[in-house]
């Protein structure tokens, strides 16, 4: 395995390549005081009560808790912009105690684009709200696997909004890993091998654990294996991100099977590095909003037979490049 070079401080956002959206460049912050609030929107730019508004980072490069925002109320353009900036910088945002209705959860997510419709409806799902209910024995739960959502699609989700409706008495955390940090810390030799490579993504290996062939067969026509770059460029920040995951990435294009397997193992292991991760302990009514272009996540299955109910909406994304 390659030696890791963990930076002591947050890596500043790189300048975007020509053609990237300029207004989306992340301005440096660097003025958070401890765990609470430091950034206030200018007076009069929103109806939300901004005295409480703040962004409290939870890790070096990934994860921040946003305070003082009521997601059930419509976002003003200024607040949407502020939250987008925070999302680009911290990759997953947490909002405590929101208790959103499904409709409010959809409405919040729609500030970032169309919602994805779910191709595999389970009991309790609506067309665009996926319900993960650990208590229902027939409902598969996507746990224990590091993944980026739906990379078997030509256009994987841009992001997702997840709310916990019911939490187990202990455990049930979710973890996210920063794929920009993971890329930055690869050796130059590995980066040279993957910088222009593409890889095949396929839903079968990831979903085979949860669904029988009778459910999967009809989807094979809708979602044939698709190729994505192994390293994608974030469309808003211009940063390079590692874009393979152990759930759906099956092969690096044009490589011998053994070489591809070995390289994919090394690349997928980057999500396991604690320095690239944040771990969130839920209370019922908490919401997470992640940038699916820049992260992987993992739901920790450490709560036995206890009930855990989560609902997710996903926002349609672009074709990775
Ligand atoms: O239940 C969780 O914590 C995460 C489940 C998941 O993978 C998702 O919502 O995409
Ligand atoms: Fe997921």
User: Which CATH first-tier class would you pick?
Assistant: Alpha Beta
Q: How many domains?
A: 1
CATH superfamily membership: Clavaminate synthase-like
Give the topology string: H per helix, E per strand.
EEHEHEEEHHEHHEEEEHEEEE
Rough shape? Answer: globular
Structural class: alpha+beta
Q: Strand order within the widest sheet?
A: 1-2-3-13-5-15-4
The name CATH uses for the topology is Double-stranded beta-helix
Our estimate of the beta-strand percent is 15-25%
Low-confidence sequence ranges? 6-13, 15-46
Average pLDDT for all residues? 83
Task: Please give the count of helices.
Answer: 7
Number of strands: 15
Per-chain topology:
Blueprint: E1 54-57, E2 64-67, H1 77-90, E3 92-95, H2 102-109, E4 130-133, E5 159-166, E6 174-178, H3 179-184, H4 188-194, E7 198-201, H5 203-207, H6 213-222, E8 226-229, E9 231-233, E10 240-242, E11 249-252, H7 257-269, E12 277-280, E13 287-291, E14 295-299, E15 309-315
Bound molecules: 2-oxoglutaric acid and fe (ii) ion.
Give an account of the 3D structure.
Keywords: Dioxygenase, Iron, Metal-binding, Oxidoreductase. GO terms for molecular function: dioxygenase activity. This is TauD/TfdA dioxygenase family protein. The protein has 321 residues and is α+β, with helices and mostly antiparallel strands. The protein has a single domain (46-315), classed as Double-stranded beta-helix (4-Layer Sandwich). Helices cover 20% and strands 21% of the residues. It has 7 helices and 15 strands. The strands form 4 sheets. A 7-stranded mixed sheet has the order 1-2-3-13-5-15-4, covered by helices on one side. A 3-stranded antiparallel sheet has the order 12-6-14. A 3-stranded antiparallel sheet has the order 8-7-11. A hairpin with a 6-residue loop joins strand 9 and strand 10 (240-242). 38% of the residues are buried. The site of 2-oxoglutaric acid has 10 residues, from strand 5, strand 14 and strand 15. 2-oxoglutaric acid binds at residues 132, 142, 149, 160, 162, 174, 297, 299, 310, 312.
